[in-house]
């Protein structure tokens, strides 16, 4: 079974600064997908960024980028120019590329605080 | 906009009184999921439907049941809620297509037990 570990329960960053959230995972599969989801307080969980394991190039979405190290099974999220609206719980998630339903395995989350 | 809608946003029920949470989607996704999320924890998958095929997680209590009468709707029934069932319940959908398409989540229903 796959496991996802987020070792930082809480992080804080000054507005306009850069912060990196860590995620490691354990799997014996070679083909899979990794995601970062953001869950603001009392609001919907939304996708931040996605990475295909077969792609070496790191995914980027505006101020959000990942550092995907497949051999190390590491998938960190970098948020540049942090904004107050980035404050949320961030979940790293793994999804197998095989199987019919491809359910997500979540990490325990990192609570990000953005300081004005 | 296509979306996942959960009703109600907040539900209060009494200990032991059956309760039903609902989820609808306009995405026409063939997979629907129910997660339980307790405070400051990761969502925990309860079960999912792949089309009409129901898939229960091994550690989901028998107290939790689900129905999917059609592609658009899915219900979570809690037959005899206990205090430990107070949580946020998230519905999500996805397609089974290739490309690692993400799950789309509803706003959740926060369930309180009196």
Strand and helix layout:
The complex is a heterodimer of chains A (116) and B (114).
Chain A: E1 3-5, E2 10-14, E3 19-21, E4 24-26, E5 32-39, E6 46-52, E7 60-61, E8 64-69, E9 74-79, E10 88-96, E11 104-106, E12 110-115
Parallel strand pairs in A: 2-12
Antiparallel strand pairs in A: 1-4, 3-9, 5-6, 5-10, 7-8, 8-9, 10-11, 10-12
Chain B: E1 4-7, E2 10-13, E3 19-25, E4 31-37, E5 44-50, E6 53-56, E7 64-67, E8 73-78, E9 87-94, E10 104-105, E11 109-113
Parallel strand pairs in B: 2-11
Antiparallel strand pairs in B: 1-3, 3-8, 4-5, 4-9, 5-6, 7-8, 9-10, 9-11
Task: Characterise this structure.
The complex is a heterodimer of chains A (116) and B (114). Chain A has no helices and twelve strands. In chain A, 36% of the residues are buried. The model of chain A has no long low-confidence stretch (mean pLDDT 92). Chain A is mostly beta strands and 116 residues long. Chain B is built from no helices and eleven strands. In chain B, the strands form two sheets. In chain B, strands 2, 4, 5, 6, 9, 10 and 11 form a seven-stranded mixed beta sheet that branches. In chain B, strands 1-3-8-7 form a four-stranded antiparallel beta sheet, with no helix packed on it. At the A-B interface, strand 5, strand 6 and strand 10 of A face strand 5 of B.
């Amino acid at each position: 079974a796959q496991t996802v570990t987020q070792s930082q329960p809480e992080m804080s960053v000054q507005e306009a600064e850069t912060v990196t959230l860590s995620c490691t995972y354990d799997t014996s599969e070679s083909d899979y997908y990794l995601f970062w989801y953001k869950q603001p307080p009392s609001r919907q969980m939304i996708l931040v960024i996605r990475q295909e394991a077969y792609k070496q190039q790191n995914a980027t979405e505006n101020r959000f980028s990942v550092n995907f190290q497949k051999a190390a099974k590491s998938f960190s999220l970098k948020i540049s120019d942090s904004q107050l609206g980035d404050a949320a719980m961030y979940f790293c998630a793994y999804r197998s590329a095989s199987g019919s339903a491809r359910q997500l395995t979540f990490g325990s989350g990192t609570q990000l605080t953005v300081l004005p | 906009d296509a979306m996942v809608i959960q009703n109600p946003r907040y539900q209060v029920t009494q200990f032991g009184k059956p309760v039903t949470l609902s989820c609808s989607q306009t995405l026409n996704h063939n997979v629907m999921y129910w997660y339980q999320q307790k405070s400051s924890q990761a969502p925990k998958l309860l079960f999912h439907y792949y089309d009409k095929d129901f898939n229960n997680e091994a550690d989901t209590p028998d107290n939790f049941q689900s129905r999917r009468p059609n592609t658009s709707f899915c219900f979570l029934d809690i037959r005899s809620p206990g205090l430990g069932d107070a949580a946020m319940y998230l519905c999500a959908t996805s397609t089974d297509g290739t490309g690692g398409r993400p799950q789309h989540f509803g706003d959740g229903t926060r369930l309180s037990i009196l």
